Amino acid sequence: MFRFCPQCRKPITLKGSKLFECPCGFHFYINPAPCALALLTNNRNQLLFVVRGRDPRKGYLDLPGGFLEQGESAEQGIVRELKEELGVALKKIRYIASYPDRYLYNSINYHVISSAFFGELSDSEARKMKAADDVSAIEWHSVKKVPVGRFAFPSMKKIVYDFRKDRPVSRWDKGSS
Ligand SMILES: [Zn+2]
User: Is the pLDDT assigned to residue 11 strictly greater than 90?
Assistant: First the structure.
């Protein structure tokens, strides 16, 4: 991340795993970058995946979402990302849990922490969706049978399996068996 101190320009090294410290007084802590992601289902018990259109892990499956912007809440961030990536304006989303992961970008392996949200799409909302921004396609897969081998990031398996095991109550449950 740094090879030279941004303050005094002398060579600098990482102390432990998260602190750059220079005798001149410069301190820099490497903290995880916050992200938000969504587990979106339809009324056929399918889960939405996006195909990554950019590196890292281009062509692999991801959950929709991305890095939070400055001054933004995780809730605002996921609503914005879903609008940008899928063209969908979801009003009802529910926080589930948070998941740490790594994200390799420009040869730096960043630590990230993702807030996961749950949302449900009606048929008309699902039909209106369009892959955009850094997403090249949309895929629906049965919640019971997800293609783990195509997942872009290690944490996805746990996120999806947790969701399958401990899924929030669905609005589609009403009136169905
Ligand atoms: Zn320095």
Answer: yes
